[in-house]
UniProtKB/TrEMBL annotation:
<comment type="similarity">
    <text>Belongs to the protein kinase superfamily. ADCK protein kinase family.</text>
</comment>
<dbReference type="Pfam" id="PF03109">
    <property type="entry name" value="ABC1"/>
</dbReference>
<dbReference type="InterPro" id="IPR004147">
    <property type="entry name" value="ABC1_dom"/>
</dbReference>
<feature type="compositionally biased region" description="Low complexity">
    <location>
        <begin position="45"/>
        <end position="58"/>
    </location>
</feature>
<dbReference type="InterPro" id="IPR011009">
    <property type="entry name" value="Kinase-like_dom_sf"/>
</dbReference>
<dbReference type="InterPro" id="IPR051130">
    <property type="entry name" value="Mito_struct-func_regulator"/>
</dbReference>
<dbReference type="InterPro" id="IPR045307">
    <property type="entry name" value="ADCK1_dom"/>
</dbReference>
<feature type="region of interest" description="Disordered">
    <location>
        <begin position="44"/>
        <end position="65"/>
    </location>
</feature>
<protein>
    <submittedName>
        <fullName>ABC-3 transporter</fullName>
    </submittedName>
</protein>
<feature type="domain" description="ABC1 atypical kinase-like">
    <location>
        <begin position="192"/>
        <end position="476"/>
    </location>
</feature>
Length: 655
């Protein structure tokens, strides 16, 4: 039924949903039906009000805002941060910090290179004003400051990284004459002043290696003290010395034995392993780029260095060397190896007899001062024993200590045991004829064994170098896969094997100055190839033999070159050959050849002695500084040539 002429009033906000057909009253013609949009808005408002249970007159809820998406670069930043955290923990606990240490090394070297680029030389970007020549004293002081701060950076990095980096610093220290004076002084800290590990970490290593036992149980009755107070059994928590892979603690046991406890630093084996892996990668890359026989050499070096981290292996080496010394009548009283206590030794802990003595680098200063030289030390006597010891190891025993730097050699005075002692008269104290000097050899982790053939070949190599026998020298070089032995001869003698005349030297220098970068690179590769020989023929043990010879030369130069090192090593080489085969090689040498060989040997020694006494006469009449000084001048000339090579390669003068 339709209702006409009727008015209806609706509450405000009421949403109509009725159609005209559903209306039961007549709607006034003035009524306007809401539009579709208005109906939708009212429906939403009423639904919202009904769901919340609030009054119809409440204000409507604002629309929900949609979440904004992160920009792509925020996603990238979060991923990078997560990867950095994962890499940090993986590097720390799995790789032993190898990634960080490598980055630290490259970063330090880059900083040093940038410093020299900015401030060194006339072509430098910021320091060229110091090279105008107006004030040489100011220029020298400026360069000293530059060298000092970069030496401090490098040494600090080597100490931080430890392990092989410390050994690298020790090797650089032994050839410090190639570097400026500031570097020489800083590198001297590398022998026993590496960064120390906290007692908390050292204690964990000791307890772990002894099945969780406390230190008081491993070393019964000891008290833990910072420094020896002289009161009963003690164990010092502060190390007496810190080296590349371990640090040394002093202890006095209940039976009054004084012992040296060498504790391997945590993570060292893992760090060295990754360092060697990186070294192998670089060796493989070098072999691929240059064709040099570096791959097998990298594997051999890695094997030898990893053995050094096993202290049980070091204990065996020390005991074997002690037996060899005891069997030699010339060395048994002059050189000593500390006793190893096997019951207190593990893979990471080595306990030996404690020796009171002075390191070789301290002896130089003592001998120079009469007031401090209470031991009556003569540097010539010290070096004579050092050279005889390592020459005997190389040419007679074939069992060679490969790390004889000054920190691993002690000098002490002790009572002469008997009237039939093997002490030479020169080693007996001039102030007290009941005491004599003795060397103590430490750190037996790195040894190399020589086959009898290689031992004899190396002796022939030195005999040929000293006597100038080019034919014999080339025979040895051919057996080692070398085209020429000159490179190894010069490395062993630390001077040119065949001295060229001044004209040839000038021509050679002029030709090298005209080389292009590509030609210089190829020349250096060819020279390195001549030095390393052919793959499969080159005796890899020579790398460590050369290290031994280099360190002995460095010790001699460090002490002021008190002896003719080349003559002595050559003499022991020829003596070993005579003892091995007095009738010649395999008894096939004719008597004429034997006579020629003996005459050549005698003639060589006579020439060397003549040079020595001629130098002594010149010194006596005031025309020279003596044989030792001339030897030092020869070694300094070799160092000067090495400095020139450094300047040629890197553009940095090291004078």
């Amino acid at each position: 039924m339709m209702i006409r002429n009727a008015r209806c009033s609706l509450p405000a906000g009421f949403g109509l949903r009725l159609s005209r057909q559903q209306t039961t009253r007549r709607i006034s013609p003035t009524f306007q039906w809401p539009s579709n949009a208005q109906q939708g808005q009212r429906f939403i408002a009423s639904s919202s009000t009904a769901s919340t249970g609030s009054s119809p007159t409440a204000s409507p809820t604002p629309p929900v805002k949609s979440k904004r998406k992160l920009k792509w670069y925020w996603h990238a930043l979060i991923i990078v941060a997560e990867l950095a955290v994962v890499d940090y923990f993986f590097d720390k606990y799995v790789l032993g910090g190898a990634t960080f240490r490598t980055a630290d090394a490259y970063g330090t070297l880059a900083l040093v290179g940038l410093d020299y680029k900015l401030y060194y030389g006339r072509a430098s970007w910021l320091g060229r004003k110091q090279y105008d020549g107006s004030n040489l004293a100011e220029k020298d002081a400026y360069e000293q400051r530059l060298h000092r701060r970069n030496a401090e950076r490098i040494v600090a990095m080597l100490k931080r990284n430890g392990g092989l980096y410390t050994k690298m610093g020790q090797a650089l220290a032994m050839q410090g004459s190639v570097f400026p004076q500031e570097y020489q002084r800083m590198f001297g800290e590398m022998f026993d002043d590496a960064l120390k590990t906290s007692w908390k970490d050292i204690k964990k290593v000791i307890e772990a290696d002894f099945d969780g036992k406390g230190i008081e149980n491993v070393f019964p009755g000891v008290r833990l003290v910072d420094k020896d107070d002289g009161d009963g059994p003690i164990f010092e928590t502060q190390p007496r010395a810190s080296a590349s892979i371990a640090q040394l603690h002093f202890a006095r046991l209940a039976d009054e034995r004084e012992v040296a406890v060498k504790v391997q630093k945590p993570l060292v084996a893992k760090q060295v392993g990754w360092d060697l892996w990186l070294l192998k990668i670089m060796a493989d890359y070098t072999a691929w780029m240059t064709g040099l026989p570096m791959t097998s050499m990298g594997e051999f070096v890695s094997k030898m260095v990893m053995e050094e981290t096993d202290f049980m292996h070091e204990a065996s080496n020390a005991e074997e060397m002690s037996k060899l010394l005891a069997s030699d009548p010339r060395l048994k009283d002059r050189v000593y190896v500390p006793k190893v206590y096997r019951d207190l030794t593990t893979t990471h802990i080595l306990t030996t007899e404690w020796i009171h003595g002075h390191q070789l680098w301290q002896v130089k200063d003592m001998a120079a001062n009469k007031e401090t030289n209470v031991l009556g030390i003569r540097l010539g006597d010290v070096m004579e024993t050092v050279i005889e010891l390592f020459s005997t190891q190389i040419f007679r025993w074939g069992f060679v200590h490969c790390d004889p730097h000054p920190g691993n050699i002690l000098v002490r005075r002790l009572d002469i045991p008997t009237s039939t002692s093997s002490f030479p008269t020169s080693l007996i104290s001039p102030n007290n004829n009941t005491t004599a000097m003795q060397l103590v050899l430490l750190d037996h982790g790195l040894y190399v064994r020589l086959s009898d053939d290689l031992r004899r070949q190396y002796a022939h190599f030195w005999e040929a170098m000293v006597t100038g026998d080019d034919v014999a020298l080339q025979e040895v070089a051919s057996a080692w896969g070398m085209k020429s032995a000159d490179a190894w001869a010069e490395a062993s003698l630390f001077r040119p094997y065949k001295t060229a005349d001044a004209d040839n030297k000038a021509k050679q220098k002029q030709c090298r100055s005209q080389e292009t970068p590509e030609e210089r690179k190829q020349r250096m590769i060819d020279e390195a190839g001549a030095y390393l020989g052919e793959e499969g023929m080159f005796p890899q043990e020579l790398i460590f033999l050369e290290r031994n010879v280099t360190l002995v030369q460095g010790n001699n130069q460090f002490l002021g070159s008190p002896l003719n090192r080349v003559k002595m090593i050559g003499m022991y080489a020829m003596r070993a050959l005579r003892e091995d085969d007095p009738k010649g090689t395999s008894g096939t040498m004719s008597w004429q050849a034997q006579v020629r060989r003996k005459m050549r040997f005698t003639w060589t020694l006579m020439i060397l002695d003549t040079v020595y006494y001629w130098s002594w006469l010149k010194q006596y009449w005031g025309y020279g500084n003596g044989f030792e000084a001339e030897l030092k001048e020869a070694e300094d000339r070799q160092s000067k040539e090495m400095k020139d090579a450094v300047a040629e390669l890197f553009g940095i003068a090291t004078d």
